[in-house]
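Troubleshooting entry. Yesterday's outputs looked truncated, so today I'm pasting the complete records for two proteins to confirm everything comes through intact. If either block looks cut off, that's the bug. Protein one:
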Amino acid sequence: MPVVVADLDGDRYLVSMLGENADWVRNVRAAGGRAVLRHGGREHVLLREVDLARRAPILRRYLHLAPLARPHLPVDRRAPLVEFEAVAARYPVFRVEPAPRP
C-alpha cells in the first residue's frame, strides 16, 4: 500500500487517513510496531504510536504533503492546530524509528 511519510522536526511519521479501522493499523499493532517500508529498497522499522496530545501538528503537516488524504480528514490543511486537535483521536499516527538490531 502506498503511504506518505510526513516529516516534522527531524522525525518521520505515518498517518492513517482512514482512521482506526485501516488494515495496516491493525497489522502494525498486532506486530508490535514492526514493519518494512519500501522505497527503492527495504527498510525495517519500528512504528511507535504517537500520543493523542502530540498528533495535531503531525496531522497538519501530513495534509500539506498528502493531497489525496484531504477528503478523509475533515479539517482544512491551513486550519489552526485546535481544529486538528478536535479530530486527532480518530486518526492514528506512528513515528518511524529504525528497527532494533537482532
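Protein two, checking that the full record survives here as well:
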Amino acid sequence: MIYVTGERLHPHQIRAAGFDSRWRGLDPDQVHAYLNRFADELDRLHRELTTANTEAERVRQALRQWQSRHTGCRFTDPDWSPNSRWQR
C-alpha cells in the first residue's frame, strides 16, 4: 500500500512502501534511496510544523496574558478630538 486517501503520510510509511516487480521495472536501489530521502524530508517537515505550532501557541498565550493585564489601560490624549486630524 503506497497511500490511502484521507490519511496523512508518515515517514515510516514511505520507508516501508512496497512495489510490484516488473520485468523492465525501476532500479530498486534508486527507488529505495529516493523514498528514504523523501521520508527524511517529510520527517523534517513534521518536526518543523510541530515546532511552529508550539511557538504559535506560546505567542497566543502570551498575547492573551498581555491583553488580560491591559484590559483597563487606555491612553487618552487631552488634545485629541475626532476632528483634530482634519484641522491640520
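Both blocks look complete. Sanity check on protein two: The CA atoms of residues 56 and 62 lie 10 Å apart.
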